[in-house]
Amino acid sequence: MSAQLRPLDSSSTPHPAALPRRTVAVAAGDGIGPEIMQATLAVLHAADPGLSFQTLTVGLQAYRAGHAAGLGPEVFEAIDQYGVMLKGPITTPQGGGYKSVNVTLRKTLGLYANVRPCVSYAPFVRSLQPDMDVVIVRENEEDTYAGIEHRQTDEVVQCLKLITRPGCERIVRHAFEYARANGRGSVTCMSKDNIMKLTDGLFHQVFDEIAAEYPEIRSQHQIIDIGTARMASRPQDYEVVVTPNLYGDILSDVAAEVSGSIGLAPSANLGRRHAMFEAVHGSAPDIAGRDIANPSGLLLAAVMMLVHLGRRGPAEAIHNAWLRTLEEGLHTADLWQEGKSRERLGTQAFPEVVISRLGQLPCQLAPVRYPEPDPESTAAAAPAKPAPTVTKATSEKRFEGIDVFLHWDIPGRDPAALAAALAQVDAQGFELRLITNRGVRVWPSGHPDTWCSDHWRCRYRGASARAVPALLGALIDAGLEPIKTEQLYSFDGQPGFSLAQGE
Ligand code: NAI
Question: Closest by alpha carbon to 259, among 223, 303, 302, 297?
Fold first, then answer.
């Protein structure tokens, strides 16, 4: 039996006493998208949450019409006007310069929080962890997903991992507000700050600062690798997990898979002025048009949307009717369990069964309740309200030197030979302190077994930022090839760069 089921999301947006009718942008998407959207809208209409829907063109239809981003021209205007979108899955065509609709929407609309409840519905849905009830709050805009990548040498490509303090503050605060608004007692931060001391270190530091503002909520930090393993093996130890983008992407799929409900999982992408709700799964082209797709992920995303819009009554009614359907063994093909399932439902029949149970509560699974939010909670406040910030201005930012990255490749790739070549260059007042290769010090005093690529970091200290162009010019004149530089700064006396071993 599943643990006490909790509401999927009761964060965000105000809910005036009398809710005006409002319009939501709807994009059916590709593959099974149109079928599951039709089923979802049928249930929404029946529950009468006071919404109208405007259909938008996104995905393959838009790509075919020549929009490389997969979005019709009317899309952003409509989303700006309505603020909320319910989206079916989109097929991203391979190659050809097509951009992912999901990534474009998230970034353009500033949807910084991806909130994904991962819930087990055992024994009605097979689950590795029958008591799982974890919400993953994933940062949605930053990290390696900024998409800033370069090829720098014959052998080396790089991806920039960008983490901002405001970005950390927004997502961490969102996680704590979510926990507060939903009666969840703990928030766990997961990062890899034992290795990435500046980027993940900032995420962890901001987490600790903001956690102090929520003394009633337990907080802990875990390294992402062991944290992921523990969440998969002991999910009952976790309630809300907040983590940067890439880890969150992986962790949320692990959590959904372990719960057994990856095909049922909804997600909310929340920003300050916009919100987008969707199922976690993709467009499932292998089963499109066969009336066997399960619309539950999108339906539960719609429930999250209703809560976001303050339509808590209809959200509760739909969610409970859905739970009742599940526990009565009325299942789509993907959930079928011989001896446990009672009737196999097609995509079209599914909404009728849920609609006929509106107003009923589940008998075996715990019913969900969507109580009115605490007006004190910032997650319950208007999404346009800027999140409070704890960023402190730096009093002294000082230039400390520069890392010059060289593409250098001679037979043997001997670091001492590179150091000798650099010694012939007028360093314009800088002092060459060390050379590293893939982050490992190779000069002075490297280890002979360290394998070296054609990509070398030469750390120069001293001089001033003004001398940098002259240094680069001198290196180029000496026949060397700088392919990238990073200026080194200290902030209030603390180095704003990672130190090499022994530095
Ligand atoms: P997928 O999630 O579409 O399918 C994986 C497997 O799960 C397939 O066997 C499929 O039949 C099954 N499945 C998925 N949803 C189901 C449902 N509602 N009911 C029953 N079975 C279901 O993942 P896949 O095949 O890797 O991706 C297909 C396309 O979807 C790709 O173009 C991908 O880029 C896109 N995609 C879009 C997403 C979005 O728009 N949010 C998210 C993930 C993938």
Answer: 297
Whose Cα sits closest to atom 6 in ligand 1?
A: 284
- Report which of 460, 463, 467, 450 is spatially closest to residue 405, judged by C-alpha positions: 460
Q: Which atom of ligand 1 is nearest to the CA of 334?
A: 20
Do residues 146 and 184 touch, judged by C-beta distance below 8 A? no
Please state, in angstroms and rounded to a whole number, the distance separating the CA atoms of residues 410 and 412.
Answer: 6
pLDDT at position 266, please?
96
The structural domains of the chain, with segments of one domain joined by +, span 20-127+260-382, 136-242, 397-495
CA torsion sign for 266, 269, 273, 274 is negative
**The residue to which tokens 């034992």 are assigned:** 194
Q: How confident is the model at residue 72 (pLDDT cuts 50, 70, 90)?
A: confident
Task: List, chain by chain if needed, residues with CB within 6 Å of any ligand 1 atom.
Answer: 32, 36, 89-92, 102, 263, 278, 281-287, 293-294, 297, 334
* pTM, full prediction: 0.89
Nearest to 206 by CA among 239, 174, 173, 178: 173
- Whether residue 17 is predicted with pLDDT greater than 70 in this model: the reply is no
Q: What is the pLDDT of residues 364-387, one digit of tens each?
A: 999 999 877 655 544 443 333 445
Mutate to test the pocket of ligand 1, among 111, 278, 281 (most ligand atoms within 8 A of CB): 281
| Dist. CA 63 → ligand 1 center (Å) | 19
What's the CA-to-centroid distance between 2 and ligand 1, angstroms? Answer: 26
Distance of CA 28 to the CA centre of its chain: 22
State the average pLDDT over residues 31-57: 96
Residues 6+ apart with CB under 8 A from 215: none
CA neighbours closer than 13 Å in the CB half-sphere of residue 240: 30
Q: Quick one: CA dihedral 7, 11, 17, 21, positive or negative?
A: negative
Q: In 3-state terms, what secondary structure has residue 261? A: coil
Q: In what order do the strands lie in the sheet with 455-461?
A: 440-443, 431-437, 455-461, 397-407, 482-491, 494-495
- In this chain, the answer to whether the domains covering 136-242 and 397-495 adopt an identical fold is no
Quick one: CATH architecture of 136-242?
A: 2-Layer Sandwich (3.30)
Fold of 20-127+260-382: Isopropylmalate Dehydrogenase (3.40.718)
Nearest to 334 by CA among 477, 141, 124, 137: 124
CA of 124 to the centre of ligand 1 (A): 22
Catalytic (active-site) positions:
145, 192, 225, 249
